[in-house]
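Folds abound. Consider this:
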Amino acid sequence: MSRFLFVAPPLTGHVNAPLAVGRVLTEHGHEVAWVGPETYLRPLVGPDITVYPTGMRLYRPQADRGMVAIKSLWERFVVPFSRFILPATEKAVQAFQPDVMAVDQHALAGALVAHRHGLRWASLAPQAMELTEPFARFPKVHAWLRGHLATLTADAGLPADDGFDPRFSPYLVLAFTGSALTGPLSFPDHYRLVGPAMAPRRADPDFAWDWLDPARDPIVVTVGTMSEDIAADFYARTVAALEPLRDKVQAIVVAPPASVPDPPDHVLVVNRVPLLDLMPRLRAVVCHGGLNTACEALAHGVPLVVAPIRNDQPIIAEQVAAAGAGIRVRFARADAATLRGAIEAVLYEPGYRDAAARIADSFAAAGGVAAAVRHLEELAAA
């Protein structure tokens, strides 16, 4: 049996898939450990999994649009987060002696420590943008990003000019998407697109299941936890869009209750939902285009209305629209009429659901958790 060490940021969109993979590795008899904040990870991994603690710290809010958002993601989160966890990751490797490290692309400390110790490691792609070199066509941005990577590499005591890129493992890159969504992109031979990695999650006993009306079509509206600070107006426009549909549609808005004051009776506002449990009942999802949310919906054959905000979300939105499985709208500018038209289209025009079903079949064939586990086991045995 082998030892696998997971390193990922303490964010839902970054840990759900690795958690599913790690659980199955444990079921197969392997030893699994995590690097991260104990208070965040312990309720997720359970009492028996080793966690090498990093502590928690706050990071500056990220800018909300375009290329500025990319820069702020790196300068305000990826780089300081990687510096912060670098000592704890080094201690974890020395103590756990892993055979393989599974490293989120935004937890670069894991890749740097693996490289320094000559360990085999897999990159876990949390976004669509970093499946390839995203800024090769933009020389100034490319140089800026390479500068950050060189600084981080030097911080880890490694030569900055040896061609090593901590975002892309030379052994294995696991992406939780599939070719039916990405389209005809070309990837290196060691890339594996396995589809979304889904497994049962913690139950939410507080969710009001009896609120759902079987005579109306349920939808979920979510923009993810990282964008709630700019989403209040989008929620308001979406609720207004749904008013004429109140006899046909129920909406579950995943947001702090204060974001949607005095919601009408066909709108339920909750901080969190058991999304995977809800998916078989849903008729549509309105979202920001986060990779996990989009792929989990499509894996259940649920069509999407995508309002991208930042980073790789416009890429996901374009992929969904190109595949015919949903409609892209503008997060900041789509008015209630536009949103209503998009929601009605994905609900009642069968082509969107048919396309989502084709993607679901493709994701199932890609293998999900089982395929990811197999590739990591093969890497450990190599």
